[in-house]
Amino acid sequence: MGQTIVEKIISRNTGKNVRPGDIVTADVSRVMLDDIMMPFIVSKFREMGFQKVWDPEKVVIICDHLVPASQVDDVRAYKISNDFAREQNIPNLHTSDGICHQLMTEAGYVKPGDVVFGTDSHTTTYGCVGAFSTGIGYTEMAAILGTGQLWMRVPATIRVRITGKLPENVMSKDVILRIIGDLTAAGATYKALEFCGDTVENMSVSSRMTMSNMAIEAGAKCALFAPDEKTAAYCGIELTEEVRSLAADPDAVYDSVLEYRAEDLVPVMACPSQVDSIRPVSELIGTKIDQVFLGSCTNGRLEDLQAAAAVLKGKKVAPFVKLIVTPASRKIWQEAAKDGILGILSDAGAIITHPGCGLCCGRTGGILTDGETVIATNNRNFLGRMGTSKVKIFLASPVSAAKCAAAGEIVL
Amino acid sequence: MGMTIAEKIIARAAKKTSVRAGDIHTVELDRLMSNDGTSHLTVAKYNNLKNPRIADPGKLVWIVDHNVPSDSPKTAASQKVMRDFAREHGIDFYEGAGVCHQIMLEKYVCPGELIFGADSHTCAYGALGAFGTGVGNTDYLYAMVTGHSWVLVPETIRFNLTGKLPEGVTARDLILTIIGMIGANGANYKAMEFVGDGMKDLTISDRIAICNLCVEAGAKTALMEVDEVTLAYLKEHGREPKACFKSDDDAVFAAQYDIDLSTIVPIVAKPHFVDNVVPAKECTDVKIDEAFLGSCNNGRIEDLRLGASVIRGRHVAPGVRFLVVPASASVYRQALEEGILETFMEAGAIIMNPNCSVCWGSCQGVIGEGEVLISTGTRNFKGRAGHKDSFVYLGSAATVTASAVKGFIATADML
Amino acid sequence: MERFTGKVWLLGNDIDTDIIMPTEYLAFKTIDEMKPYAFSPLREDLAAKIKPGDIIVAGSNFGCGSSREQAPEVVKALGVKCIIAKSYARIFFRNAINNGLLLIENDELADDVKEGDTITVTVNEKIEYNGKEYPIVSLPDNLVEIIEAGGLVKAMRRRNGLD
């Protein structure tokens, strides 16, 4: 009987022919530790009685949620990150280079077939390059640092097939929002999502990243794309038979299959305050807005900034509306500067911050107050996520967000 | 008897032919600047007045710059009050476009004007020959509603600058030297006037840095004569002087100092007072956690160019955070165009959007317990940049950048 | 089997981690400092009202969202005896187990129970409320092992020969 992508990855990792529901112990290829969790990870690591991390090369520490520091205690996480990296000879430390998930893929820490854990729920992102990756808590991370292993249950897979050409102004963000709306916020809990079809085959790795990133919003454990030429080019590896064969077998067994025709998809938004509360933008037209946030590990990449710049070129952000742009990484910022994208956005009146999590994690970067409405390209619109519980957060694609910024209200 | 520049500007605003230091006069304001530090309080007081109205909304400029982008619901609520009020009353409004004083100097300030700003560093406007002074929000409200206020005409301390600053020494070092010389209250209630041959080599950016910091000596305002450099700046920004004043030969000064610019060296102000100055070279044993290049004092293109020239091809020291924050959107844009921001990015700096940032000690680049910051900001008061038990040193753009590279306080010639 | 009775706090579906422990307070040094802010976006006064031994009953997808382990740790620190929800998000589930916070899955109770009422739980067996019994499905063996060790930290300490 054939296997899905996730079953193949876990089988290769464990040397067993696994099936959904099997409980296995995996050897971890790489771990991602983020600043906000570092104090807790290190303290649990010590409490558990470990002295040395199992393999310093496999550990990546990234400061992003708290960069730049907005509260006096924030710098404690930097210090603990720096000290722990030095003490354990961990070579991979990023203190202000951008968002963890962007750096994990962009800097080549993750390759197809890897098993990766991170102390952040959006660790599902790395499925964009055909890796199994998922978020865990700090206690489990401490245990991995000591042992290099973690138990997990092999998830059943929901296959999502999308075929055809996406209409103009429909981005991969609209696709994943629609899927989450259909699955609901708990619809993929404990399961893997597997995306296939010529629509996703034609997408850039960046666009795929948006989709694997948001899979957690349907509760998914991981979200995978079969590695192809684009993956190989992105990861700087050769597309060997071993890599290519991570693709699902034709006779793989799925929990369920969702089918979409790309031509049927339209720009959508997730309405306050649930990510699965999806409505077509056409039904929201005229809603007044106060702020637009373009950024995050979901949509802070070069192609996202380019899409927004294409909309905003020669235009101005509407009066009394703020457009906050937070590129996902230092490299993206640099590319966008070279490309003239930052110039266009700056001319339009955008507030461009240093790369990092920014407003998405709700600590600084454009916090709002009662009665305000924000259009945001990130991944969550939970109650209170970006300020008070009376802030309305609509999640949208970069194109939709940029259009709203220019109009001062929701427009198509 | 002759008048000083300060007296002449007040005489103009009071519609008198002559005023004397010590007089109190009712004056008409040319411009009223307010920022998100206090505007919401002004609005609250305004709304408590009976049938309030604004004398001339066209004279008001409101700028959100202290916490941008906002870092808490409370800040956001204050800013919303300000934004809604500005919108309702047709007040010129900026949000995220830069530090208030920089925006005022780029877009509004004209020689001869009398300007109230609800911020102490309003004295920066003297760089363009305008009398700018900081007021509290009650004074501001009165001026906003009536168009008038009262001022006590200040005495003037005159600084006669000669010679030229040595290579690697900046206007920032000069003004820190002066503040150290006269003390943090050395110019209380007084105007500080800068004249002399040495002025001709000081750019507008240098002059802003000098005037801006005068409040740290207690000055009510700082003033400079309008010259070719000023006129060129105004022309570039599409403005004309209202009135160009010079102090009369027989004007009376409270004190006069002669300063030979060639004697100035790189200076830092040690915690926790701006007048606690020493040569920067005496502080090279101080390890730093963070460096900040920005603020209304030193966040202009000239400062960024200087910093970039220091850091080009080098990298921020491990474990050190180096925040670079252009003072305005136009500075940001220019620095982007010139590849300066790219130089800082390449070197590992954190580049934030134009705003008060670390100088104001909230929302970004906050320092923690026991940490040391070297900053081009305006103040090094205890707790100013974050934790109450932290330490702020002030220095020039060159010194700050060199320190970011070294990881301890350093001057550019040490690289 | 352990048996206990507790007062119910009733919450809805999709109680996310940003509600349980908002990001603003996430970098506090200790869980104790975070405690007062638990559930604050949803019900500002709830953390102050919860007493040790109380039980949270909720709808589906409890703990969805972020991987922040501060969420279950804070709930445990408030003294909540257990959570009974229709379903849990998986990261929250693992984090709770690893901290020895008991989670029970039950489809019906949340629709029947009223806030402030008391219920009786017999671990791995049943919930009793208003004369009705609700069965509890038992956990997989590997999770029982972690819980029996007293959480993952203790399990690792044992592995490292410390306890």
Description:
The complex is a heterotrimer of chains A (412), B (415) and C (163). Chain A is built from 15 helices and 18 strands. In chain A, helix 3 links the parallel strand 3 (59-62) and strand 4 (92-94). Helix content of chain A is 32%, strand content 19%. Chain A is an alpha/beta fold. Chain B folds into 2 domains: 5-261, Aconitase, domain 3 (2-Layer Sandwich); 267-414, Aconitase, domain 3 (2-Layer Sandwich), CATH 3.30.499. Chain C has a single domain, classed as Aconitase, domain 4 (Alpha-Beta Barrel), CATH 3.20.19. The mean pLDDT of chain C is 93. Chains A and C meet through helix 2, helix 3 and helix 5 of A and helix 1, helix 5 and helix 8 of C.
Record keyword descriptors for this entry.
heterotrimer; B: 415 residues; alpha/beta; Aconitase, domain 3; 2 domains; 5-stranded parallel β-sheet; 13 helices; 18 strands; C: 163 residues; Aconitase, domain 4; globular
Strand order of the largest sheet of chain C: 4-3-2-1-5-6-7
> Count of helices of chain C?
8
Report the largest inter-chain contact: A-C, 53 and 45 residues
Second CATH tier, the architecture of chain C = Alpha-Beta Barrel
Task: Count up the domains of chain C.
Answer: 1
CATH class of the largest domain in chain B: Alpha Beta
* Net shape of chain B: globular
Total tally of structural domains of chain B? 2
CATH superfamily of chain C: Aconitase, domain 4
Question: Helices and strands in order, then pairings?
Answer:
The complex is a heterotrimer of chains A (412), B (415) and C (163).
Chain A: H1 5-14, E1 23-27, E2 30-34, H2 38-47, E3 59-62, H3 74-87, E4 92-94, H4 100-106, E5 115-118, E6 132-135, H5 138-147, E7 149-153, E8 157-163, H6 172-183, E9 192-196, H7 198-201, H8 205-214, E10 222-225, H9 229-235, H10 241-244, E11 256-261, E12 268-270, E13 278-280, E14 291-295, H11 296-299, H12 302-312, E15 322-326, H13 330-339, H14 341-347, E16 351-352, E17 373-376, E18 392-395, H15 398-407
Parallel strand pairs in A: 2-3, 2-5, 3-4, 5-6, 8-9, 8-11, 9-10, 14-15, 14-17, 15-16, 17-18
Antiparallel strand pairs in A: 1-7, 12-13
Helix pairs in contact in A: 2-5, 6-8, 12-14, 12-15
Chain B: H1 5-14, E1 24-28, E2 31-35, H2 39-47, E3 60-64, H3 73-89, E4 92-95, H4 100-107, E5 114-117, E6 131-134, H5 137-146, E7 148-152, E8 156-162, H6 171-182, E9 191-195, H7 204-212, E10 221-224, H8 228-236, E11 255-260, E12 267-269, E13 277-279, E14 290-294, H9 295-298, H10 301-311, E15 321-325, H11 329-337, H12 340-346, E16 350-351, E17 372-375, E18 391-394, H13 397-406
Parallel strand pairs in B: 2-3, 2-5, 3-4, 5-6, 8-9, 8-11, 9-10, 14-15, 14-17, 15-16, 17-18
Antiparallel strand pairs in B: 1-7, 12-13
Chain C: E1 3-10, H1 17-20, H2 31-34, H3 46-49, E2 55-58, H4 70-77, E3 82-85, H5 90-98, E4 102-105, H6 109-112, E5 118-122, E6 126-129, E7 132-135, H7 141-149, H8 152-159
Parallel strand pairs in C: 1-2, 2-3, 3-4
Antiparallel strand pairs in C: 1-5, 5-6, 6-7
